[in-house]
Specification:
Number of domains: 2
Number of strands: 9
Order of helices and strands: EHEEEEEEEEHHHHHHHHHH
Pfam families: AraC_binding_2, HTH_18
CATH architecture of the largest domain: Sandwich
CATH class of the largest domain: Mainly Beta
Keywords: DNA-binding, Transcription, Transcription regulation
Strand content: 15-25%
Number of helices: 11
Radius of gyration: 22 Å
GO molecular function, one term: DNA-binding transcription factor activity
Helix content: 40-55%
Organism: Geodermatophilus nigrescens
Oligomer: single chain
InterPro entries: AraC-bd_2, AraC_XylS_family_regulators, Homeodomain-like_sf, HTH_AraC
CATH superfamily of the largest domain: Jelly Rolls
Distance between the termini: 30 Å
Amino acid sequence: MPVEVVDLSIREPDVAQAVLTELYRSERPHAFSGVRRSFICELRSATAGRLGADRLRFTAGMRCVIAPLSDLVVVSPVSGECRYVAGRDEIITRPGVVFRHPIGLAFSGEWDDMDVSIVRLPLAVVERVAEERLGVPPADVRFDGMSPVSGSMRRTWLGLMRFVHQQMADPVSGLAEPLVAAQLTELVAATALATFPNTTMTSARLPRAGSVAPAVVRRAVAFIDAHASLPITVTDVARAAGVGPRALQLAFARHLGLSPTGYMRRVRLEGAHRELQAADPTAGDTVAVIAGRWGFAKPDRFAAHYRATYGVLPSHTLRT
């Protein structure tokens, strides 16, 4: 599935309100007021799977009441200055500042000639990653603050945001492959959990190993083997095996000595190996295309994994 791109230049505030309300899945329409000078809203929106990257500019000074959002939306100004107020929290933004839009809470903003970079993804993805990696149930995942927990995490997020936008703009980035898009989406979700204050940082839960039968692992392995070419998640595998994500992680560590994602990576490497053996380079088959189809977005990293496993470079297998 190719990256979906939308480019718009809107001169009517009511049209811009409708477009942004739909894009950011607001609970009700945004409300613009106090528009100064001629109004132009320029939007470039790119979506790969469940991950979105937008560039949004308003040329007019204005005020806005932003309706409650249901997605995770993180913003960093490229130029201009904005003032946001959400409850008792206030943020004055400028280039280099990162902030997370509140979820489920209306907030107000005021700006003049604002240009911002945005990354967005459904909150459900973040909740799933929190359960899979941290053992925190989705119902207990809540974000608290709008700003990063530290300067280093702010810089980490800015670097990731630039990478996401670059990948969305690159026609050969590999995001057209569902497995690649899903992996980048999970990276963004995991980084958001490490960047912005949330309940996973203060959870007192300690995972318990419990007793998981080997049959659970066998069911999980069979599911992965049958669906490795699809963008399945650890939650999908756990559901098929009849346990929770954390129990599955512990079962794999106990019985196989690796994680479910590690096993998925191994199976996908085997799939790429079989496809390289059957491929015909004279018909246009390439290592990069085959690697991307199996979720390996970076050819150099794929080549390193491949050589460590099979003793030769993937290009050698393709030629022979």
